[in-house]
């Protein structure tokens, strides 16, 4: 049990987030901001959009913890969400990809990114990148919304958004034959004492790149009536516990959260004075089923309201009539052919790294006692197993109601109620559990020491495992809710470094992408790749963030001829 004691001590020493409810604080400038880049700006429906994001912090937040989660969305000009994901921030950087639906309408869309804390300032502070999407499967084209699109073209030697660009790009040639080897040399002039916060590199068709930056039309910069926490520990689930009929918030009531599936976990906390709760979730990946449930003392009329994990504030982004230049039309045609070839040959270009699953072992580790029901003769009720066998659990009665008590020698164990679990879901009603037929139960695991989980202390744990993973047929409380919740998406790996094989068609629309490129101070970096089969003009784009938080973009064109 020494490991468990150490775990409790560590949890006590961790800083506890506070102030996640109440009125919006008086803020005049964003404490966090994001600089966002995409691999290009012209896509075919069904393709992935690769992005790289750098998180900046204001001086007023120098002594606070940093957000660990970035929210990235592709939205319509009216703010409708098309695709979205949550991405881990490490060393102030996050990267990944969003896959476009294959049946979306041709038109202009926007890529944006933000942290949960940035939602305190509203979508007027998020970065937006204009994206043109061509859908060969649909004839409809998005209508204009009475605005003009901001468009800035990249040409040879462009030096955008920085007065003294330290970035340099050279190539071994300016013109290549299909499938030639290409060598790119990248350098940053840091002799003046400046530094770079981060860089990303893309090699794409020239006509697929433009940089359009716009802001939503906002009447108020601060639009939230609720404070959003800094997600310094990871993804969070927040919400309010209320009375269903009156809508009155229920303060100081316990709410439990169970993560179902292979990576099972449990946590519990009390609501604050405004009935708000905040759960910090582990760094799992993909979508997981959650079950949230209030304690029995909250009453049968209690209702859990979970906050939307993405921003829902309406925005209006300006787009004019959707048009393509002659160069964009030619590029889109070639890219659509490549996308069809890729679908035919099932080439997977999206490489992602996910966090390792923690396995199916319960969050409490190795139990102190295990009661396997098949080891004993069949008894008619669960109460007889607890009271008639040498277990660490007893069923007691108080004021006509039965309750569980864990038997142990640790001081203070009797001062707290045990945590009662069925298939790792908290059940705050012993009568429901005792009514279950023992034939539906596989085993009962017991922790007979004080256990701290979240901000709650329990007088041990009684974990009942059903035979078929079906909660043994128990009717879970009606005030509880199931959610299919999105955890972290995968981090996209660099693409385009693998050599092409002769028998494989070249279907790349993004020839190369490295979302987090590192440059040494004393020598140029070299990147090598195979040029595409498709003739045309292409761009090498090196983009990043300077030490003073400015966007830096440097580009160099090259040509592929047969």
Task: Indicate the structural class.
Answer: mainly beta
Spatial shape:
elongated
What is the mean predicted local confidence, pLDDT? Answer: 82
Low-confidence stretches: 1-27, 147-163, 353-359
Give the helix/strand layout:
Blueprint: H1 2-13, E1 32-38, E2 42-44, E3 48-57, E4 69-75, E5 81-88, E6 93-99, E7 107-114, E8 128-134, E9 159-160, E10 167-171, E11 175-176, E12 181-188, E13 196-205, E14 236-243, E15 254-259, E16 265-270, E17 276-280, E18 287-294, E19 302-306, H2 326-345, E20 352-353, E21 369-372, H3 382-388, E22 393-398, E23 401-406, E24 419-422, E25 425-426, H4 430-434, E26 441-447, E27 451-453, E28 456-458, E29 461-466, E30 481-486, E31 491-492, E32 512-517, E33 525-530, E34 536-546, E35 551-560
Parallel strand pairs: 2-8, 11-35, 24-29
Antiparallel strand pairs: 1-3, 3-6, 4-5, 4-7, 7-8, 9-35, 10-12, 12-33, 13-32, 13-34, 14-17, 14-19, 15-16, 15-18, 18-30, 20-31, 21-26, 22-23, 24-25, 26-29, 27-28, 34-35
